[in-house]
Design a protein that fits this description.
By secondary structure, this protein is of the alpha/beta class. It folds into three domains: about 100 residues, Fumarate Reductase Iron-sulfur Protein, Chain B, domain 2 (Orthogonal Bundle), CATH 1.10.1060; about 150 residues, FAD/NAD(P)-binding domain (3-Layer(bba) Sandwich); about 150 residues, FAD/NAD(P)-binding domain (3-Layer(bba) Sandwich). Helix content is about 30%, strand content about 20%. The protein contains 14 helices and 16 strands. The chain has a five-stranded parallel sheet, with helices on one face. A five-stranded parallel sheet has the order 6-14-7-8-9. β10 and β11 form a beta hairpin. The chain is globular, with a radius of gyration of 23 Å. The structure holds iron/sulfur cluster (SF4). Iron/sulfur cluster (SF4) binds next to α6.
Length: about 425
């Protein structure tokens, strides 16, 4: 097995299988009846089937099965949080350890056969706003059904958050381009630097519109000093880091506020860029942290200091520049929030200061774009012909959940367009 189509330089690089190791891992699969792994893959990849193909040596067929179910096969094979999806439900977990499903997925995807431009007769044209995982998946699935998909992307490069904000050391351009090339090969059209203010206007020229803009704004903590130039959001920082514009971090002290996977991406990227000290400040404890264990360990291995049960109070400046962040210790109360986690409260008199040259808030994303539209369970909306999905409609989630939304939207749009043509 030589000549892999994708040179995978992403997260799996440390564990990447060769044919021998992939075959041994595939042999461990129990081929369960009613497999729980498949049910817990948001993209519904037929996991036991593709593992069986690897086991029998037909890697290209395994890649085909994966791509058919998940149009973002390369990206998800590299950065999908398997710990909370497929691998978490693997039956082998109760015997020894779960099958390394994501790594087998990633391994097989490398051997995908070259695809060529497919000319489908295009009778309808669908406008998609946003080229991130939901929009791209929807476009690919529509194109496969013979519906012309045109993606309007506000930025000058396609791919959404994975392409703009996931650090290169986790997700390389090669992996992202592999999925984009697949879309282009199916005839999906991209209109870049195209901001759409009113999706309904597109209904004049297109049979339906899918809004998949994601959540383009980072939330802020709203404490004194927030307007200092050395205080930025995770999204802005990760975009700069991905473009290689973070040399200024060398020997600088960085403090990150947040407790999710994005905060760990930021921490790992800052450490990678040569920051002398990286603190991650989180107002709850390790149990409440909603992160993937492997990424938490990775951040700690890179020397990131995690300050649990700590909350920021004020950004302090000297000579107009950020010099430290005043923090306060917290404790967890018995009250639960909507996510079922205990709500923290501050402990008076426990303020202390952490020196910092740069502060980055990684406490989630938001959007104020067209919030008055109501989204139904099939991703149609209160406006006929307009569909919406991905993080914008559902709230922050994972890439593979946006893939699921993109597939559902493509089915709903196809039904809508065909019904209208009857
Ligand atoms: S897409 Fe994610 S959940 Fe689905 S098989 Fe691949 S790694 Fe597992």
């Amino acid at each position: 097995m030589t000549n892999p189509k994708i040179e995978n330089k992403g997260k799996s690089v440390n564990h990447q299988f060769d044919y021998f190791r992939a075959s041994l891992e595939a042999e461990r699969c129990l081929s369960c009846y009613d497999p729980p792994c498949r049910k817990s893959c948001p993209a519904s990849i037929p996991i036991p089937d593709f593992i069986r193909s690897i086991r029998s040596g037909n890697i290209q067929y395994a890649a085909k099965l994966i791509r058919e179910a998940n149009p973002l096969a390369a990206v998800c094979g590299t950065v999908c949080p398997e710990e909370i999806f497929c691998q978490n439900r693997c039956t082998r977990k109760s015997i020894d350890e779960p099958i390394k499903i994501r790594e087998l997925h990633s391994y097989a995807t490398q051997f995908e056969v070259e695809y060529s431009m497919i000319e489908y007769p295009v009778e309808s044209r669908i406008a998609i706003i946003g080229s991130g995982p939901a929009g791209l998946t929807c476009a690919i699935k529509l194109a496969e059904k013979g519906l012309g998909a045109v993606i309007f992307e506000q930025s000058d490069q396609p791919g959404g958050v994975p392409a703009s904000s996931i650090p290169q050391f986790r997700l390389s351009d090669d992996v992202i381009n592999s999925d984009l090339d697949y879309a282009k090969g199916l005839g999906v059209e991209f209109k870049l630097s195209a901001k759409i203010d009113n999706p309904q206007v597109l209904l004049n020229d297109y049979n339906a519109v899918f809004i998949a803009t994601g959540l383009p704004q980072g939330r802020t903590v709203n404490i004194p000093g927030e307007n200092l130039p050395e205080v930025m959001t995770a999204l802005s920082f990760l975009e700069e880091a991905r473009l290689g514009k973070c040399e200024f971090l060398k020997s600088k002290k960085v403090i990150i506020i947040g407790g999710g996977n994005v905060s760990l991406d930021v921490a790992a990227a800052a450490a990678n860029e040569g920051a002398s000290e990286v603190h991650l400040v989180y107002r709850r404890g390790p149990i409440e942290m909603k992160v993937w264990k492997s990424e938490l360990e990775e951040a700690q291995n890179r020397g990131v200091i995690i300050d649990f049960l700590t909350s920021p109070v004020e950004y302090k400046a000297e000579s107009g520049k950020l010099s430290s962040v005043t923090c306060i210790r917290t404790q967890l109360t018995e009250k639960l929030d909507s996510s079922g986690r205990r709500i923290p409260e501050t402990i008076p008199g426990t303020e202390f200061s952490i020196p910092a040259d740069l502060a980055i808030t990684a406490i989630g994303l938001t959007s104020d774009y067209m919030k008055e539209i109501k989204v139904n369970s099939d991703l149609s909306t209160s406006v006929a012909g307009i569909f919406a999905g991905g993080d914008w409609a559902r709230g922050e989630g994972t890439i593979v959940e946006s893939v699921r939304d993109g597939k559902l939207a493509a089915d709903s749009i196809t039904t809508y367009v065909k019904d209208k043509q009857r």
